[in-house]
Specification:
There is one protein chain. This protein is α+β, with helices and mostly antiparallel strands. It has 8 helices and 11 strands. The chain has helices at 54-66, 89-105, 111-118, 165-170, 177-196, 199-212, 222-232, 257-272, and strands at residues 2-15, 22-40, 46-49, 72-79, 132-136, 141-147, 152-158, 236-239, 245-251, 276-279, 289-290. Strands 1, 2, 3, 4, 5, 6 and 11 form a 7-stranded mixed beta sheet that branches. Strands 8-9-7-10 form a 4-stranded antiparallel beta sheet. Strand 8 (236-239) and strand 9 form a beta hairpin. The protein is globular. Mean pLDDT is 88; it is low at 292-322.
Length: 322
């Protein structure tokens, strides 16, 4: 068995002033994918359930071929992450699958190996690393582990429809030289904010990133969500840059959290008809780590609480009290 968490869009996503500068910064949330792989020496190939998880099946077959496993097996993928919404559902499916197949065959699956496998399939989120990370999603490589933040809630809406990640990343990005320089400044500011655990600064950067992404994936609800954020005293607005979701960030340690969350949920329901509340994940042992060209990336990162296999059972949804 293998597990992987999802994200609520990204805290920041854009292009840096360098070659292959496309990057994102993850916002891990408590929604998981769990994959189970049962090798079968009598099976001719890999069977995946549900059948639509074709990318996961392809990845499992790639790992089996590299391991010279001559047969197949049954891959089952259970996910609590909505698909096509910018919540890293596909990335979580693939990371969980790699871990499950690796465990079944007794193969080591360090992050660097998973990166290499995923790069052959599609642009990928940074959900294979615990913590908030800066990740080059198009080239599938870690830029830096920024660390961890205190838990936040995300009161989110979905504008509807679905976005194909591969198609989105093929589209040209109309960012100017000035835009790229601003993304570099925002990334530096965000790294500092995570170190200081400054949630207000994090929220402001997330909102700025959402605004800068409008030419690429316009969200009609962004301005109304910013209004809601101001009205309830939220930290900022995070979006699925390549998806359909938007959410108001709230500090769960705030004494007025319950009031703010209830007000935000009511306003979001009036705006979009429905609302979902997510909790972000904290990683107490995740220390900042920076990778640079010519320096080997860390193969192991600190163990964190979420790595327990006791993820939510099949058929359940993540529910959070305010």
């Amino acid at each position: 068995m293998g597990t992987a968490f999802g994200t609520f869009g990204e805290l920041l996503q854009g292009v840096l002033p360098e070659e292959d500068g496309d990057f994102l910064v993850t916002l891990p949330v408590a929604r998981w994918t769990r994959a189970t792989f049962r090798p079968d020496p009598d099976a001719a190939d890999v069977v995946v359930r549900p059948a639509r998880k074709r990318k996961a099946r392809r990845l499992a077959r790639m790992i089996l071929d590299e391991a010279r496993w001559p047969a197949g097996g049954l891959l089952t993928v259970n996910s609590l992450i909505p698909e096509g919404k910018g919540l890293a559902s596909s990335s979580a499916d693939l990371v969980a699958t790699a871990r499950a197949v690796g465990h079944a065959l007794g193969l080591k699956m360090p992050a660097s190996r998973i990166e290499g496998l995923l790069a052959r399939i599609e642009p990928t989120d940074g959900v294979l690393y615990p913590g908030i990370v800066a990740f080059h999603h198009r080239t599938v490589r870690l830029r830096a582990v920024l660390g961890s933040l205190p838990a936040m809630a995300v009161v989110g809406i979905d504008e509807g429809g679905a976005v194909d990640t591969i198609d989105f990343n093929r589209a040209p990005k109309p960012f100017t030289t000035a835009d790229r320089a601003e993304y570099a400044r925002l990334l530096d500011r965000l790294a500092g904010a995570v170190r200081r655990r400054d949630l207000a600064e994090v929220g402001g950067i997330a909102t700025r990133s959402a605004l800068m992404n409008q030419p690429l994936r316009h969200k009609r609800s962004l301005e109304p969500m910013r209004d809601i954020c101001r009205e309830v005293g939220g930290l900022g607005v995070a979006v699925g840059h390549s998806g359909t979701t938007l959410g108001v960030l709230l500090d769960t340690a705030d004494p007025a959290y319950t009031h703010r969350a209830t007000a935000a949920a009511q306003a979001c329901t009036e705006l979009a008809g429905s609302v979902a509340v997510y909790r972000t994940l904290s990683f107490p042992n995740s220390a900042p780590t920076r990778t640079t060209p010519g320096t080997p990336r860390p193969e192991r990162l600190p163990t964190t609480r979420w790595e327990s296999p006791r993820v939510p059972p099949r058929g359940t949804t993540a529910a959070w009290s305010w």
